[in-house]
Design a protein that fits this description.
Structural class: alpha/beta
Number of helices: 12
Largest sheet: 8 strands, parallel, barrel
Distance between the termini: 21 Å
Radius of gyration: 17 Å
Number of strands: 8
Length: 248
């Protein structure tokens, strides 16, 4: 059975609650598509109003981050149970901006992945290399290390429900996009890594997105690749073009 495409917008630190509701209204008709999964991953303060704003539509809501503890003295953090209760279905884990700016390491991300599954959330696990790493020829070594570290003690059945987002760091917000061949090569390498860690059936089931300056002009070519199952879209998810990407 063919894997169902998943197109997720990562709003990052954009959109006040009132702006978020307005954007949902503007995109409502543009993102209609029963053949793909559409997700808005929004800032924590926008989750409740966005969940309400997308009721009755084909859009699911995701969070941009979460903490692995259930409750307690963790000022400023949000738990998986809180997200689930608010109506969230997906959660981004390990985005390069979290890894870089906030020094999140793989051991922490592994705890987050397991806690997300435990709470009934679907993780969108991010991986990717820097320009320096690509030029050194260690792209797949680096990404395989991320995947293997982040999925320690995660079961095959869980991985089948997982979404992995390959985002070359050098292509995020820069306007540069990995060539279709580069994107497909790494996404296939990720699938091969999953097959080695688990089995062919698990590798065939896991959905792998490409992210990094995805836009209305390049979406169709990227998503046509055999190992690319959609996109994690940054800036373009905040405007009408997101509808064109969803309906590539």
């Amino acid at each position: 059975m063919a894997r169902r495409k998943i197109i997720a917008g990562n709003w990052k630190m954009n959109m006040t609650p009132s702006e978020a509701v307005k954007l949902c209204a503007e995109l409502k008709e543009l993102v209609k598509n029963d053949d793909v999964d559409v997700v808005y991953c929004v800032p924590a303060i926008d989750i409740v109003p966005v969940v309400e704003a997308v009721k009755g539509t084909n859009v699911e809501v995701g969070a941009e981050n979460m903490y692995f503890e259930e409750k307690g003295a963790y000022t400023g953090e949000i738990s998986a149970a809180m997200l689930k209760d608010a109506g969230v279905k997906y959660v981004i884990i390990g985005h390069s901006e979290r890894r870089d700016y906030f020094k999140e390491e793989d051991a922490l991300l592994n705890k987050k992945v397991k806690k997300a599954f435990e709470a009934g959330l679907t993780p969108i696990l991010c991986c990717g290399e820097s320009l320096e790493q690509r030029e050194m020829g260690v792209t797949m070594d680096w990404i395989r290390l991320q995947i293997k570290s982040d999925l320690v003690d995660v079961t095959a059945d869980q991985v089948k429900e997982l979404v992995i987002a390959y985002e070359p760091i050098w292509a995020i917000g820069t306007g540069k996009t990995a060539t279709t061949e580069q994107a497909q090569e790494v996404c296939k390498g990720i699938r091969d890594c999953i097959a080695e860690m688990y089995d062919d059936a698990t590798a065939a089931a896991v959905r792998i997105q490409y992210g990094g300056s995805v836009n209305a002009g390049n979406a169709a070519e990227l998503f046509a690749q055999p190992d690319i199952d959609g996109g994690l879209v940054g800036g373009a998810s905040l405007k009408a073009d997101f509808g064109k990407i969803v309906n590539y």
